[in-house]
Amino acid sequence: MRPLLLIGITVLLLCTAGCTSHIGKRINDCNTSETTVPQQNATQEAKTEQAVPLIANAPSGTSILIRKSEFRLYLLVNGNVVQSWPIALGKNAGQKEVVGDMKTPNGSFPVDEVLGSSDWTHDFGDGKGEIAGAYGPYFISLDTSALSGGAWDGIGIHGTHDPASIGTRASEGCIRMNNEDLCALKEHVNVGMQVTIEE
Hints:
Blueprint: H1 2-20, H2 23-30, H3 32-51, E1 62-67, E2 72-77, E3 80-86, E4 89-90, E5 107-116, E6 121-123, E7 130-132, E8 138-142, H4 145-148, E9 156-158, E10 169-171, E11 175-176, H5 179-186, E12 194-198
Parallel strand pairs: 1-12, 4-10, 9-11
Antiparallel strand pairs: 1-2, 2-3, 5-8, 5-12, 6-7, 8-9
């Protein structure tokens, strides 16, 4: 009976020592739910940013690339990715054609205005009425007239009252960002800079 007890204690001590020695490696093995998953997500984000190549004919200086398939907005300097953020897009996929089709347009558009929008409201037609803060702190307006021929406009990059919508198809055609991400982006935006939106 005593030899079995002694073996059990020895095994327990060895397991405990294994989990607490080599702190950098073994603790992660023991706590996969708390430490490994966030590290994998961070690694995946880094891989996504590194995988973005120079865009064809990227404008020199600062520009923006939006990849709809990735639900991601990339800040570029001379065509190279320097930062990126998750976004929400129009409720319907495909190229915007008419007013109210809930699609985010593809193309290359200059920024024509940067407006403070913290006091703007919007009625999404869901029975909740006017929603305060629907556009977040800023609305970065895009000049889409070359594509629309004047048939539709009002597309921009803006914040949101609904952070849970980021990463989904939720807008009426605009590009939504988390408000804090929009504030970080706005520091690099100026009128005339190019915004390329692609599938």
